[in-house]
Specification:
The protein has 108 residues and is mostly helical. It is 65% helix and 0% strand. It contains 4 helices and no strands.
Length: 108
């Protein structure tokens, strides 16, 4: 039961990040909209970085993370750092909004 609760919480967090990606251009000036496919790709990249232990909710991207990405993924430095930047941007947005749901007024 505990595993299921943790898994559901991770899914909820990821879904919130995915929704943020889909509407980030509305939330901040000068941001280009992302297609649903691109948003899902960034979400999957973040999930894989966390699964491999490369990223663990640090507030910034480090040289060590970049080195691990380069070793782990072919052409990884072309895609994965941006996923991290978007996620850190998302965490900052949540902190500034003061709401765990990202200011949407919902829990999911």
């Amino acid at each position: 039961m505990l595993y299921l609760d943790i898994h559901q919480e991770k899914e909820k967090t990821m879904m919130e990040f995915l929704e943020y990606l889909k509407r980030r251009h509305v939330l901040g000036p000068g941001r280009r909209p992302l297609s649903d496919v691109s948003a899902e790709q960034y979400d999957n990249r973040l999930h894989n970085l966390k699964r491999r232990g490369i990223y663990q909710d640090e507030p910034e991207v480090t040289e060590g993370m970049l080195e691990q990405i380069a070793r782990t993924y072919k052409n990884g430095l072309d895609h994965y750092p941006r996923a991290l930047a978007y996620y850190i941007e998302y965490l900052d947005y949540l902190e500034k909004s003061g709401s765990p749901d990202g200011g949407t007024g919902t829990d999911s």
